[in-house]
Amino acid sequence: MPANKNALIRYKTIDNCLRNPYRLWTLEDLVDACSDALYEMEGITKGVSVRTVQGDIQVMRSDKLGYNAPIEVYDHKYYRYADRDYSIFNMPMSEGDIELLREAVDMLRQLEDFDQFNEMSDVVSRLQEKLSITHQGNKPIVNFDNVPDLRGLRLLSPLYNHIAKRQTLRIMYQSFNARKPQEFILFPYLLKEFRNRWFLFGSRAKDMVLFNFPLDRIVSVETVDDVPYCDNPDFDSEHFFDDVIGVSKNINNKPSVLTFWANREQSQYIITKPLHPSQKLLERHEDRSCTFQIEVVQNFELFSVLMSYGPGLKLLSPPKAVKYISQKLHAAAREYDD
Q1: Per-residue CA distances from 41 to 7, 14, 34, 155 (Å)
Q2: Is the pTM of this model over 0.70?
Q3: Smallest Cα–Cα separation from 262: which of 302, 310, 311, 313?
Q4: Which residue numbers in the chain have pLDDT < 70?
């Protein structure tokens, strides 16, 4: 049962009151204390009802939040902790709680490339020390793919800020095949990660054509003050990638229905880890191979994923995509023949 911020303030206030043995606390006293705390911390002036505080006491007494607070009423009027040393903040952590925190620490560590999370990084370090992850030599229980010293990571935080502030940018970009960088005046919209590589999505100012730039190929970034920032109404960062595998997609790209067969071994993996959320199982065959269907935009990343299964997967339709993959696989085979 999640508790909102105001409820947590009330729980803390009630806890502070009941830990003070030198004062007699009636229900009305606890109501007044909670009202004062909410006004002081949140500026809430309407106060707290008796029924709300009674509900808070019931929650604190129960196991809903794990408190099991020993709150008792004596002389038919006053509230106190039966155990004078009790506090809701002295609760010991279970092994399960500790393991969950360790996982969370490992996951939060993945955000260190963003300057915006510097303060959180300090918190994570303190948590890490408290949990003795490093001092006791405990091995991490969550491990993420990462590429050390990947070019372009230094641009993550600046680009994050430019997008948040809606600033027009001058991007100097040099592709692998270009001899020198090319200039783009860009309205930046989104940072996206795919297979340990980061990409910047934005519209070119002169014609609103959508581009994506791998950060490791961006030479420089600077703001442009004389070109007003403009949104692209056709780019919805929340749903733009719903029908795509990877990052290669233009606004005008439409998804295609692709049907493919997978052998018995690969079918087990593809069923448990679908290639795409649109994946459907069309047929199970007697040899336990399967035929599947997905509806996605055709791009380089899609074909790379399909070919990565080798002889365990065969694309059945559409014909042009089948021909493309067939040509690529035959070319690869010829390299081994030579």
Answers
A1: 12, 15, 11, 38
A2: no
A3: 313
A4: 1-3, 91-151, 338
